[in-house]
UniProtKB/TrEMBL annotation:
Record-listed a 1,2-diacyl-sn-glycero-3-phospho-(1D-myo-inositol-4,5-bisphosphate) binding positions: R254, K256, R294
Superkingdom per UniProt: Eukaryota
Protein name: Sorting nexin
Biased composition (Polar residues): 64-76, 122-132
The keyword Transmembrane appears for this protein: no
GO cellular component, one term: cytoplasmic vesicle membrane
All copies of domain PX, residue ranges: 218-328
Stretches for region Disordered: 64-109, 116-135
């Protein structure tokens, strides 16, 4: 049965199976059962196709059923004071449909754990080893972009009421400041663990607080996407060969394993901008171009993971990269899922320097970064749109125009042959060759984006994801600032012990130092990534136009001896 819906965000289609929708546009949904987070419907222009379920809400009467709309973007939560970023269309809601047999989202079976390596060794008798399956250990609220409410928050609220804290709690219990548990941490309601096995250090650098570098830095390659099958060929999937330099021994992982890790990272690291995974795609998952694109973007994702001083040391990430034994894999996976130092409790693992920082100075620094990240987000989107349009022109318009020019030159050559007494074969051949040269140049233009623009778009896509994380992280810091100011005012009025106010200020320093360290790391990576992106683009452009020039010079020489 068709349903009416409204678009919450604009979405630009990227292939023939999808359709574009505009914010507030009225839509018709053919079925409210999503496929991998995508719905099929019709826009107001009569176009039919797929669009992200998280970008729309179904319109129902007040007497409607127990429906919860698809959108749960954290940046759109009430009370949010930052720019709105639509949810990632690649994210689907696990459990939103029952009979899901897709490669990325099928149920995980604990009976088997690691992806089989490509079968080339003798003695296997042609039988594939079981592929990695996991139980659905996390619910739909732990999808990318959602920072789930820690399990400890109920205990925090209870302990707060017993302690009788006089600092008010936010009325908006859906804000990310509350859901993340940071409010409870600031108010001192997150219980201290008897033993904290992990610790992450922040030190003062030349540009302020920074994460202490990983004492054992490493890199990890992502190679050889290989199509494999299971269930006697009924099920197909792509595995990737990962080789961390720390052990120099490969493991094989599917995209859904990356997705499991990504959700663990989001669940644990409240104040860190976790790089987004490459997007999912509803159709064409085994097409060569899509597989190559996903591999390129997984390489960038892995570079950011291994270069981050905190994320690279995470036990769950190390387990993901290094574990080859099935039994050990299951143990490590369950240990990661039972990790108590997540969300607000993760803040207990952060060790900050003793240097004093004025609260107002920190707030000014955060405001400056907020303005910068908003401007960068806009400019990244602008460059993405321009580069994407240029790719379309290279593949379509430029090639066609050069082909037309080449055909026109060859038509001239053919016409010159119509009156033989006055025909000059050398000239005719040179003009004909010129036409073929421009056809070749057109093909060169069509192939060129693979050498330069694709890398640019991959980098821009990664930074769109990183920038979209900061609104929530900055919102956490803003909430912490507000609690400090409120507690100090109450202390000055004699309604709160100074000791309790100092405790709130001390815990706010942890959040402030963590955000500043994350800002510094972002800038450090930004400089390196955009330097590499621009250098690569310009070098490839020079090589390209040199090749074009060589083709034209070769053709020009054909006219020299006429």
């Amino acid at each position: 049965m068709a349903l009416k819906a409204r678009a919450l965000y604009s979405f630009q289609s990227e292939n023939k199976e999808e359709i574009s929708i505009q914010e507030n546009e009225e839509l018709v949904i053919f079925s409210e059962n999503s496929l991998d987070g995508w719905l099929q419907g019709q826009n107001s222009r009569g176009e039919t196709g797929l669009f992200p379920a998280s970008y729309v809400e179904i319109l129902r009467s007040r007497s409607g059923s127990n429906y919860t709309d698809y959108s749960s973007s954290p940046t759109g939560s009430p009370g949010h004071d930052y720019y709105t970023t639509p949810p990632n269309p690649s994210i689907s809601y696990q459990g939103s449909f029952e009979d899901d047999d897709d490669d990325d989202w099928d149920d995980w079976d604990d009976a088997c754990t690691v992806v089989e390596e490509p079968r080339s060794a003798p003695g296997t008798n042609g039988h594939p080893s079981p592929s990695l399956q996991y139980p659905a250990a996390y619910d739909h609220q732990q999808h990318a972009g959602y920072r789930p409410k820690p399990a400890l928050e109920r205990q925090d609220s209870m302990s707060s009421s017993k302690r009788g804290s006089v600092v008010g709690r936010n009325l908006n219990r859906f804000s990310c400041f509350v859901r993340s548990g940071v409010e409870a941490f600031i108010l001192g309601d997150v219980p201290l663990m008897s033993k904290i096995a992990e610790a992450y250090f922040i030190e003062m650098g030349s540009k302020g607080p920074q994460w202490k570098p990983n004492p054992h830095p490493f890199i990890c390659s992502v190679e050889d996407p290989t199509k494999q099958t299971k269930f006697k060929g009924i099920k197909s999937y792509i595995s990737y060969k990962l080789t961390p330099s720390s052990i120099n021994s490969p493991v094989y992982r599917r995209y859904k394993h990356f997705d499991w890790l990504y959700n663990r990272l989001l669940h644990k690291f409240t104040v860190i901008s976790v790089p987004h995974l490459p997007e999912k795609q509803a159709t064409g998952r085994f097409e060569e171009d899509f597989i190559e694109k996903r591999k390129r973007r997984l390489i960038l994702w892995m570079e950011h993971m291994t270069s981050h001083p905190v994320l690279s040391q995470y036990e769950g990430f190390q387990h993901f990269l290094c574990c080859r034994d099935e039994k050990q894999w299951k143990l490590g996976k369950r240990r990661a899922e039972k990790d108590e130092m997540v969300g607000a409790s993760f803040l207990l693992t952060i060790q900050i320097p003793t240097e004093h920082q004025d609260l107002q100075d920190v707030e000014d620094r955060v405001d400056a970064f907020k303005a910068f990240s908003k401007k960068m987000d806009d400019s990244v989107l602008q460059l993405t749109n321009v580069a994407s349009e240029l790719v379309r022109k290279h593949v379509g318009g430029f090639r066609k125009e050069f082909q037309k020019l080449g055909n026109a030159f060859q038509a001239i050559s053919h016409s010159f042959q119509m009156d033989p007494p006055y025909s000059l074969d050398a000239l005719n051949n040179a003009i004909s060759h010129t036409g073929k040269t421009y056809e070749t140049v057109g093909e060169m233009f069509a192939e060129q984006p693979k050498n330069d623009l694709f890398l640019m778009l991959d980098t821009l896509s990664l930074y769109q994801g990183l920038l979209s994380n900061f609104p929530d992280i900055i919102h956490l810091q803003k909430g912490a600032f507000a609690k400090v100011k409120e507690s100090q005012r109450m202390s000055d009025e004699g309604r709160m012990d100074q000791e309790e106010a100092d405790g709130i200020r001390k815990r706010c320093r942890v959040v402030g130092f963590a955000l500043q360290a994350e800002m510094n790391h972002f800038h450090e990576r930004r400089v390196a990534d955009f330097k590499r992106m621009m250098q690569s683009y310009l070098k490839q452009q020079i090589i390209f136009y040199q090749r074009v020039s060589q083709q034209l010079e070769k053709t020009l020489r054909m006219y020299d001896n006429l």
